[in-house]
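Aim 2 progress update. The chain analyzed this quarter is reproduced below.
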Amino acid sequence: MDLFDQKKENKSLTSLIFEKIREDILNGRYVSGDKLVEIKLADELGVSRTPVREALKQLELDGLVDNIPNRGVVVKGISKKDIDDILTIRLCIEGLVGQWSAERILDHEIKELEEIYDLMEFYSQKGDVDKIFELNTKFHETLYQTTKSRYLEGVLNDFQLFIKTARNSSLKSEGRIESALKEHKQIVEALKNHDVEAARNALVNHIANSNMNIKSIVQLEEEKLKNEAKV
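Predicted structure tokens:
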């Protein structure tokens, strides 16, 4: 399948399977309580059971599945508490991103962020939310790279992935794209000036607003599910 053409990225088969199943969990293809059967997954993916088994072990370490005796591997997924925890932790450390990025960013990286921002502005005028979401993710991934800290980059990229669905829904809420664009502009301007305080404040403000929006979306979804359960 096309997934395994990604070997050009020098990723192992186990890593590719892990990423595929993780994406399916985070996108809602597999939900909390679903069983992941090793032999069935191996058949679907056209691979042997060994890399699937290893991928499931990695997913267990990530906390996305549980291996329950006499039951097998069961999906845990991302709970509302998980999202709350991620948003709180992210807010605490994004200020450090602003500081390190302002101190360490290179000219060509500033240009790259400006180009991504320009594209976000272009697609916002077209109302292409999916493209804006893709560019928003790229903006933050690029921003994390400018800190020159692989640990910080790794943690925050994982956080972005774990709350992907909530972030996407957040951007689709009324007025959020316009607000987010202004916030991204402030971040880019602060970094161009290598202004540590302004960059830190711009990042914290952006993430705080994003978090507030995501929490509102999650709360609405939770209330919707409760109401549907009553019917």
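The chain has a mean pLDDT of 90. The beta strands are 35-36, 65-68, 72-75. These observations will guide the mutagenesis experiments scheduled for the next reporting period.
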